[in-house]
Amino acid sequence: MSLDLIAYAAFFLTMALTYAIMCLGLNVQWGQTGLFNVGIAAFVAIGAYVSALLTTPDAAGRVGGYDLPIAVGWIGGALVAGLAAWLVGALTIRLRSDYLAIATFGVAVTVQLCVLNLQPLTGGAFGIGFIPRPFGNLASDPLAFGLSNLALMAAVVLALYLALQHLAKSPWGRVLRAIREDETAAQALGKRPIRFRLQAFTIGGAIMGLAGAAQGHFIGFIAPDNYLPILTFQVWAMLIVGGSGNNRGAILGAVLVWGLWALSAAAVSAFVPPEQQARAASLQIVMIGVGLCLILLLRPRGILGASNALASLTGRRTRKFKE
Amino acid sequence: MNPQFLMDGLIAGAMIGLGAIGVTLTYSILRFANFAHGELLSWGAYLALALSGGLGLLSTTLSMPIGPFSFGWSLPLATILAIILTGLLALAVDAVLFGRLRSRGSAVIILVMASFGVSLALRSLLEFIFTSKPAYYTKALQIAVKIGGGLRATPDQLLSLGVALVAVVAIHLLMTRTDIGRSMRAVSENPALAGIAGVDVRRVIRVVWFIGAALACIAGIMTGLLVQIRPYLGHDLLLPLFAAAILGGIGSVPGAMIAGLIVGLSEAAAVQLVGAEWRAAVSFVILVAVLLLRPRGLFGRAA
Amino acid sequence: MTVPALQTLALAAGYEPDLPIVRGVDLSVAPGELLVLLGPNGAGKSTLVKAIAGVVPVHSGNVLLGTRDITHIAAHGKIGEGLAFVPQTENIFATLSIHENLQLAAAVLPRSRRGEKIASLYQRFPDLATKSSRPAGTLSGGQRQMLAVARALIIDPRVLILDEPSAGLSPKIVAEVFSMLKEINADGVTIILVEQNVKAALAIASRAVILVEGKIRHEGAASTLLGDPIIAKLYLGTSQPQEAQQP
To answer: How many whole angstroms from its chain centre is CA C191?
Structure first.
């Protein structure tokens, strides 16, 4: 019994950590650079599908299936998602700030469409199965399998966390911060804000792709339904709760919100009659939406908040009237 | 290629155009991309559904089809009430959320993010109240009539086209010929100067919300009448709306309508040439092309 | 003693709540005066008039128009009280036609008076009348300034405030603008003028106030200030006493 519980806890935490990776990617884009991405699900999906194509065994009627090592899949997924982010960013970052948001929204719609309709490549609505799972040889022992996967994911998150912390303190991170605080001043110092923003957006997109790949391999199966807009909303909720701009907050927020989400979903399925479950689930989403607005209004620093990134954007800014 | 796609594209385009006018007005005057605009279409459609249902219960004669149309007087009456209620909904959201963020001097992107939260909440609330099962204003079937040139259209479709045309002309005259229209253009160019010139900017913002919501409501009801009513009705139209608003040039009413027709016709052509499953990607392609080639759109002024 | 046309009482104002740029200004402008506000860059001249016009937040103190306290009336409401403001830059709507610029401002008047008022302004500024249907963005710098002033005059203001109307204009055009201001003043409109162009401004002004670091440092008749070598040197950036000259 208690072993089952540990195995379940390991499964839950591993899933939460895959979201933490997405959240870290979003934090580079939003928390550190102020770039609004409404298409997180798209970049996660790209990472997951690319990695699946590279690593799955050859299957009849489907392109891909190169049977490559998992690590190659992860890297490939991150690279292609980063490339997609670079393309979107190169197109829109020089324009108004909300054109990027609209474009990422378009990417999300289009990637979802591609995943559904490019059947020979993606398996259509049925998705791709038989994705190799890390430590698959331990699958007969759920506890060892769960714990080793948890350890792997924790190591990935830790490595990413350290790398991002290092990056934030590096000259590159300082320039990024300077651009966010005062774009004109940074420009006067000879820094090209557009280039730095584009780099940050690309890195963030690649990290989301990595998260998608890692999650796909952990579950062993991917389908278009995993990458609906609700995924984007969840990751946003995680970052906002954790406090944007703060990498530790991003990880904590992911675990917390995923926990709340899983718990309330369990409660819905336990206490709500089956015919009303869809309704209860939509109420769950209403709450995320209202919560997002409330945090923007009342606690712009996030619930655990430590950073002032969001606060500086919501704060008093009357610059346009300045002399 | 069957020329009928022209008719389908025109009708879809008219609905997109109406919605896009709302997007372009709120965008140019409130200065942010409102991701919750699609939900105003959905709410308009469902409010009209609930109200016309209620009116139909009051008197069965109200639900008897009018002439060649599929619906009774309950729907036009409900439409008027729904327009007012959708407008009030937009004003309420502005009062509790956007207005507060504005007065605090929040960055544009915070308003965009808040609108994202609003769209999520409003859409899921509809799903909660009405469930995600498609609904219809009427069960009556309509037969498409020949209108020349080998094209066919149902009376409902022709009526919708007419309503869209009247609405566009009315908004265009409002913008160019009236005090409030002139004030709206002034606020869109320079809100601080508009205040100095005696324009009550807050009143203008309220009017813009109301007009945008009213047009969204009409577009939503038309979509509901000609296709079906779903909680995702507006969300699925959001990308076409943004694409049309940007293609037309932010702030341009005729631009939004013309661009809406372009988007609608391109979608219909894509359905013919590539397949219906790719319809939703058309707006994205148009959006990318505009951002790449002419970011200020067809009729927009340089940023 | 007559009631001042406009006065500020211990006015403090600035963009940020904790950073006043205007720091306790008591300014009094008599009816019919043409007052020029002078001072070094960053003295707060522009902020002072923007605070009076309601564009910059007032932290404390009051603004009285005649006997009425207008401190907390929004910018657009001050028009109705008879206070008109012409900002330094972006003071016309470039995408609206010249006629629409005037119609916009005339919207505060009763409908019956609008046409006649606009017609009388066209008479005064014939250059604007000939181009009335063109977008205002196509006007030259001097014509823009004319349009901005015409827009402000629509309400027949009791007090007209202008923020550096000579900025960016050629000397010839500056002379035109200033002679126009003098005419308007002669018609009985009280004018407050912020200027860097000291010589030209003092030539038409009746009185001058020198603002330094957000406070009034000196005030006096325009002619005395012009003749005071120390003031000329310290605040006006000229070492030679200037001779008043009529434009």
So the answer is: 6
Q: What is the mean pLDDT of residues B28-33?
A: 91
Kindly state the average pLDDT of the residues A76-84: 96
Q: Does C245 reside within a domain?
A: no
Domain at C24, CATH number: 3.40.50.300
Q: Calculate mean pLDDT across residues B250-275.
A: 94
Chain A's closest residue to C56, CA to CA, is A321
Chain C residues in contact with A320 by the CB 8 A cut-off are none
DSSP A19-47: HHHHHHHHIIIIITT----S-HHHHHHHH
Amino acid C245: pLDDT: 42
Asked whether the beta carbons of A48 and A77 are under 8 A apart, the reply is yes
The predicted-structure confidence for B88-109, as pLDDT tens digits, reads as follows 999 999 999 999 999 888 888 7
pLDDT number for residue C236 = 56
Size of interface A-B (CB pairs under 8 A): 148
Q: What is the CATH number of domain B4-293?
A: 1.10.3470
Mean pLDDT, chain C, integer: 88
Nearest to A323 among C16, C46, C57 (CB): C46
Check: CB of residue C44 under 8 Å from CB of residue C216.
no
Going from N- to C-terminal start, the domains of chain B cover 4-293
A positions 19-58 inside 8 Å of B (CB): 34, 36, 38
Bridge partners, residue B26, by sequence:
none
Calculate Rg over the CA atoms of chain C: 18
Q: Which residues contact B129 (CB under 8 A, 6 or more apart)?
A: B46
- What range does the domain containing C208 cover? 6-235
Number of domains observed in the structure of chain C? 1
Which of the 8 DSSP states describes residue C138?
G
Contacts A114 to B, Cβ<8 Å: 281
Distance CA B50, CA B45 (A): 9
Is A243 within 8 Å of A302 (Cβ atoms)? yes
Q: Which amino acid is at C159?
A: V
Let me know if residue C173 belongs to a domain: yes
Full 3-state SS string of B219-238: HHHHHHHHCCECCCHHHHHH
Answer yes or no: is C157 within a domain: yes
Counting residues of chain A whose pLDDT is more than 90, the rounded percentage is 41
Q: Which residues of B fall within a CB distance of 8 Å from C104?
A: 179, 182-183, 186, 194, 197-199
Which ipTM value was assigned to this complex? 0.89
Q: Does B199 sit within 8 Å of C90, measured CB to CB?
A: no
pLDDT of A171-222, one tens digit each? 888 888 888 777 777 777 767 888 899 999 999 999 999 999 999 999 999 9
